[in-house]
């Protein structure tokens, strides 16, 4: 590693950059004015100098960084809440939109592919080379889209005690202030069998880039016996698990009322907790300032070595936040980052994780840029059981991004990681490589016509907004469900 002079190797490709964030075997390090050597889909080494005459690509005033790992997203349905759920919520459910707002606006199956393409493009453009796609009604479509775009992806198959397409809700709120639940465990067990088959069938897809996961949709959409069976199947077949857990306060409260246990205790007692479990959000646990009961949730999470996919922007939009990033880390929880909804700018998500971590920790030293960068790289790789992702080291996959330093947000630069976390956006990302292939070039994803897809998305959205009144049990139209910030004016 870091040879002064390397001999000419016709099979290797050399990239020169002002900075390279390399892995020295134990930690990330910042190399200045160096060369990254890749061969095929793997990283070979790093060099300070090359032998005279060795061909290389000079990336100029740029930084090469490990590809980020997004641990939670929903590509085929992500934009359904945009221009609708913001600034809204049910005060009776702690301002949540999960229950009586969910499902009222749908853009239809035909629009799922458009959303998936746009969202994966947005994720790629923000420097993510691997994404955990939670999955659900359109898991097969999401797997196909991931393979086509070139991203590395782990795709879940939704396991819930109800129908596969999630068109009939397991929970309901007929009066807007109470919840009723209807569990169909037989259907849930069928969903689990489908999930196992889905994961097996994906193995080897996309030259090994695409893999499957078991994805119980939430602690309160599955029976406890279903969660026990998910663990058995995961262990039997060596398949990872992801779940929405302790996502909001009404879920926490309902779990206590229905089961006498917190969502984390449910995951613990059913055997679901483990190093192979990625829990999306996991904000509402005992010890949080808005939960007035004592408990051992954080201890259980840390002892199990489970991963929390922290998605700070969507939490912050509803007035919530993790308490605290630093406290979870100190308890032994493997902390990762996810985008969940919109915007799916992973760099913005990292910034929010750092800022909210400092605010809740009441310290500038809490949730440092270093902490967040680790969460976005090697911690994410650990969550997926991968030692060859999230870092630039010999033998690792050639998954990395090139950050342009010739921009207002990145200048001046002394510490690449601090500039990224506190100043950059996805527009700072110039190129993205997955498996050694450049799939984002000069900020554009190859094969994706963003403008055309956005035009189609607008048409489907307008049709979906008009149908909301028919789907709402109280027949509220879109302008009642989500009033415009500024009312329309007619100048005729």
TrEMBL record:
Does this UniProt record's set of keywords contain Hydrolase?
A: yes
One GO molecular function term?
A: hydrolase activity, acting on carbon-nitrogen (but not peptide) bonds
Per UniProt, residues of the Amidohydrolase-related domain are: 64-438
Q: Which UniProt keywords apply?
A: Hydrolase
This one is known as Amidohydrolase-related domain-containing protein
UniProt cross-references to Gene3D superfamilies, sorted A to Z: Metal-dependent hydrolases, Urease, subunit C, domain 1
């Amino acid at each position: 590693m870091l040879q002064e002079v390397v001999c000419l190797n016709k099979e290797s490709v050399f990239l020169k950059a002002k900075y390279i964030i390399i892995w020295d075997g134990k930690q990330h390090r910042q190399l200045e004015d160096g060369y990254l050597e890749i061969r095929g889909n793997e990283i070979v080494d790093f060099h300070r100098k090359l032998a005279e005459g060795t061909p290389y690509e000079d990336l100029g005033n740029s930084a090469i960084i490990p590809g980020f790992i997004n641990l939670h997203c929903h590509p085929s349905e992500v934009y359904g809440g945009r221009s609708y759920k913001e600034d809204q919520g049910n005060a009776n459910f702690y301002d949540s939109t999960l229950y009586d707002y969910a499902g009222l606006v749908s853009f239809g199956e035909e629009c799922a592919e458009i959303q998936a393409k746009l969202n994966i493009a947005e994720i790629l453009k923000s420097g993510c080379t691997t994404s955990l796609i939670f999955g659900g009604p359109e898991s097969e479509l999401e797997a196909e889209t991931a393979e086509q775009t070139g991203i590395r992806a782990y795709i879940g198959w939704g396991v819930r005690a109800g129908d596969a397409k999630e068109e009939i809700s397991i929970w309901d709120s007929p009066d807007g202030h109470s919840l009723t639940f209807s569990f169909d465990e037989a259907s849930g067990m069928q969903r689990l069998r489908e999930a196992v088959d889905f994961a097996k069938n994906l193995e080897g897809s996309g030259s090994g880039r695409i893999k499957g996961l078991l994805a119980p949709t939430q602690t309160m959409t599955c029976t406890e016996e279903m969660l026990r069976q998910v663990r058995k199947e995961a262990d039997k077949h060596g398949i990872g698990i992801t779940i929405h857990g302790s996502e909001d306060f009404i879920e926490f409260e309902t779990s206590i009322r229905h089961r006498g246990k917190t969502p984390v205790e449910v995951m613990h007692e059913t055997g679901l907790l483990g190093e192979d479990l990625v829990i999306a959000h996991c904000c509402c646990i005992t010890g949080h300032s808005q939960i007035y009961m004592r408990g051992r949730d954080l201890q259980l999470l840390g002892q199990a070595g489970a991963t929390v996919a922290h998605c700070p922007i969507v939490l912050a939009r509803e007035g919530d936040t993790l308490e605290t990033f630093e406290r979870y880390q100190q308890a032994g929880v493997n902390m990762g980052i996810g985008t969940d909804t919109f915007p799916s700018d992973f760099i913005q998500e990292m910034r929010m994780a750092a800022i909210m971590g400092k605010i809740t920790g009441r310290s500038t030293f809490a949730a440092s840029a270093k902490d967040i960068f680790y969460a976005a790289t090697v911690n994410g790789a650990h969550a997926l059981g991968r030692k060859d992702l999230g870092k630039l080291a010999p033998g690792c996959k050639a998954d990395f991004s090139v950050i342009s330093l010739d921009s207002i947000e990145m200048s001046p630069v002394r510490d690449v990681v601090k500039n990224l976390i506190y100043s950059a956006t996805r527009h700072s990302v110039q190129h993205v490589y997955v498996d050694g292939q450049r799939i984002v070039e000069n900020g554009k994803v190859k094969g994706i016509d963003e403008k055309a897809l956005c035009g189609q998305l607008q048409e489907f959205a307008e049709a979906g907004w008009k149908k909301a009144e028919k789907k709402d049990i109280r027949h509220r139209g879109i302008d009642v469900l989500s009033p415009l910030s500024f009312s329309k004016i007619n100048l005729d």
